[in-house]
């Protein structure tokens, strides 16, 4: 086995391996079998032979067939070589307890969490991991996307509907998984609440 950097991205339907990494492991990589749409464009998807994935002390699984993409743009944006993106097909099968304070996570069987009475919880609305929020007292629905590096990403229409165009903002850029650079703007909203 080889140790790799992996990205958890529930916005991806499937789990993917980096094409260059797959080739370096001696895996057979097919010609493109489809195009996958990203938030900023599209990527070629290739088929790879079956591979086993292990998170030590947590779980093991085999993906057959596995699919590959070019993660060079993702690796550049992450400032490290991303060899694997674990997508919704795997994420939804397990319970994930994430601790941001010590940058760790634990994996359990789906449905195995028992929450103590009175503990704060947030219920996701559907398979897309959507959540009710309010910004400046105006309701919105956002998708929790583990692969997005923004705090909350909004369409321009939602930005305007929530009154954020009335706040001071900073222009910036972000890079999509396909390497396309897009213009963004950011602001800080004082009144944000999560949940119904």
Structural account:
- The protein is mainly beta and 196 residues long.
- 12% of the residues lie in helices and 41% in strands.
- It is built from four helices and 15 strands.
- It has helices at residues 19-24, 72-78, 88-91, 156-161; strands at residues 5-8, 16-18, 29-37, 42-48, 51-55, 59-63, 66-69, 82-86, 94-99, 104-109, 130-135, 138-143, 170-175, 181-186, 192-194.
- A six-stranded mixed beta sheet has the order 1-8-2-7-4-3.
- A hairpin with a 2-residue loop joins strand 11 (130-135) and strand 12.
- It is globular.
- The mean pLDDT is 85.
Question: What is the number of helices?
Answer: 4
Q: List unreliable stretches of 5+ residues.
A: none
**In percent terms, what proportion of residues is strand?**
35-45%
The major β-sheet equals: 6 strands, mixed
Radius of gyration: 19 Å
Shape descriptor reads globular
Ordered list of secondary-structure elements with their pairings:
Blueprint: E1 5-8, E2 16-18, H1 19-24, E3 29-37, E4 42-48, E5 51-55, E6 59-63, E7 66-69, H2 72-78, E8 82-86, H3 88-91, E9 94-99, E10 104-109, E11 130-135, E12 138-143, H4 156-161, E13 170-175, E14 181-186, E15 192-194
Parallel strand pairs: 1-8, 2-7
Antiparallel strand pairs: 2-8, 3-4, 4-7, 5-6, 9-10, 11-12, 11-15, 13-14
């Amino acid at each position: 086995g080889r140790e790799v950097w992996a990205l958890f991205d529930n916005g991806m339907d499937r789990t993917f391996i980096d094409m260059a990494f797959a080739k370096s492991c001696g895996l057979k990589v097919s010609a493109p079998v489809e195009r996958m749409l990203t938030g900023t464009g599209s990527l070629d998807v290739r088929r790879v032979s079956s591979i086993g994935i292990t998170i030590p002390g947590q779980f093991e699984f085999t993906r057959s067939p596995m699919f590959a993409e070019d993660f060079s743009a993702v690796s550049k944006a992450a400032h490290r070589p991303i060899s694997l993106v674990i997508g919704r097909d795997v994420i939804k099968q397990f319970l994930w307890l994430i601790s941001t304070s010590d940058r760790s996570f634990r994996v359990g069987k789906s449905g195995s969490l028992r929450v103590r009475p009175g503990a704060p919880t947030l219920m996701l609305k559907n398979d897309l991991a959507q959540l009710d929020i309010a910004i400046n007292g105006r309701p919105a629905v956002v998708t929790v996307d583990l692969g997005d590096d923004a705090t909350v990403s909004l369409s321009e229409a939602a930005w305007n509907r929530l009154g954020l165009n009335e706040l001071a903002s900073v222009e910036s850029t972000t890079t999509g998984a396909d390497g396309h650079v897009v213009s963004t703007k950011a602001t800080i909203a004082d009144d944000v609440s999560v949940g119904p």
